[in-house]
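Field reference: sequence -> structure
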Amino acid sequence: MDNQNIPQSFLSYYSKGLPDLWKCIDGEREERSIKGVCPWDARCLLPDDAWHAFVRNNFRAMTAEMASSMIDSLMAISAWRPTQDIILIDEAVLEALMNSEVDKLPLEILGHLPPWCIYVPIPDGCRESSGLDNAVAGVFFYYGVANTEGSHSGKSGFELRILPVLVGAASQAIPLPLSEELETVSQALSALWPPDAKPENPALEHMTKTFVSRMVSVLLYAITEMEKAYGNYGCELPSSRPTPTKTKNGFRLFPAKKIKEWRLGEKIGSQLRRAEANTNSELPSEYKGKRRPHIRRGHWQLYWTGRRKFKEGEVPVRQIPKLVWKPVSLVAGYIEENASEE
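Structure field:
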């Protein structure tokens, strides 16, 4: 199966196997709403207790493990269905993103994803860099509210869910806490598991943290590019989530008419490939003895927007963090001159 077509396959599977599924989910949202307003974080389609009740009432024969896996995939595809955003990142850029450090970045930016869910295919050439041993074909990113017993995601229970689609195997979402008590990505990575429930296998813990860290960088790039496209770059909570339509049978969320593809990083990717070719080529005679051209690693730069000082009597307005990814850059004049755009 083409990595890019995985969401459509999931959507078709659930739509054909459970024809009333979407109507039931819309009914669950309406039933839990108060005068049309969701009493949970609007960045999440439904809180966890609603999903658990839904699966418990409709799929009673399932084991706990099967139910957990189904809830994760149901949450992802239900959140993806109304907008159907697929993020296609140039392979060279994706590789560079997954090797960019994110530990010290502020956690709150991860809560700025405009739609409820996006899907990012992982090309075959980038699987090894994902951290999951060539097993991941794509990743769903969406939000959840962990309001069931045993949650360790702070008072709000708000989480980023990272659901890897594995080749030939079922998978479960990895929840990354986005609570206000945590400030940086590094702190969130340390809180992936409750203190008494960490994996017994250190290699598994390391692999999971590595995968999540690399996917966080990918998501940050998608968020910053989508914010630019929607014209609300730097806004605290940008949104492209659809509004339910009122029908004679209640409020409904209808699927997007077509898939929305975002092609990101193509220009940068072309420059990276040209740079790689140039760094491996022979230098002209006038450059002999000078510093060898090389590529500087891509990295994130953090800026804070808004005023820092206020006059007496003014109400202070909190600054908003803004991230800019600085792609892999070329060091040495010869390479810079020859790698520039025509």
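Note: The longest strand covers residues 136-145.
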